[in-house]
Amino acid sequence: LVNFNKNDEQVIYIGNHIIDITNEYLQDSLKHFDDDRINQLISAKKIHYDQKKLVISNDNFNDFVTSGFYDNENGIRWTDGSAAIGFIGDYITMDTLHIELNTYMPPVCKNIIPEILVTDRINKTYAAVFIKRDGDKFIFRLQSEMPIKIQKISILADTIDASSDKRILSFPFISLELRK
To answer: Who's near 47: CB < 8 A, 6+ residues apart?
Structure first.
């Protein structure tokens, strides 16, 4: 529920959810900030994701809480080897989830094989039972005996030697597609 802005100071509430409460603080120094107000803020800011096919890309990056991604550079975002996409709204899978990671793999990234981990709302982590590489595309399949309410998708990968760049780089991300 937070769009972090590195150019502004923000007041953040951290509980079961992370909420930017800067405006609440500026209005009345949190005198009327209670459980009811927290629930109002959470429900007002939930994003409604397409439950059949969800594509995460530069077009909707602000609908998620992200870390480990650098700024958009001509349609790609370099990752730092430990990227994560947090869900603000609900995305619930049934027994099988197909994930397609679209990338651009320059020659320096040719040996990188990303790993996908899905974390649910009770912090249980699921790893892919199937991984296939098709050029610059990686296809993953996760299975579960119970429905999964996704909290976060982690994208882990080795980093590259980019000594001319001050950033820690892994591979360029284009999009992530989830299908049930």
So the answer is: 63, 64, 87, 88, 89
Distance CA 178, CA 127 (A): 15
Q: How big is the chain by its Cα radius of gyration, in Å? A: 18
In this structure, are residues 21 and 12 in contact, taking their beta carbons and an 8 Å threshold? Answer: yes
Q: What pLDDT is recorded for position 1?
A: 44
pLDDT, residue 88, reads: 82
**3-class DSSP state for residue 35?**
helix
Contact (CB, 8 A) for 109 and 171 = yes
pTM value is 0.76
The 10s digit of each residue's pLDDT in 72-84 is 999 999 999 999 9
Q: Using CA atoms, how far apart are residues 17 and 113, in angstroms rounded to an integer?
A: 31
Helix (H) or strand (E) holding 55: strand 53-57
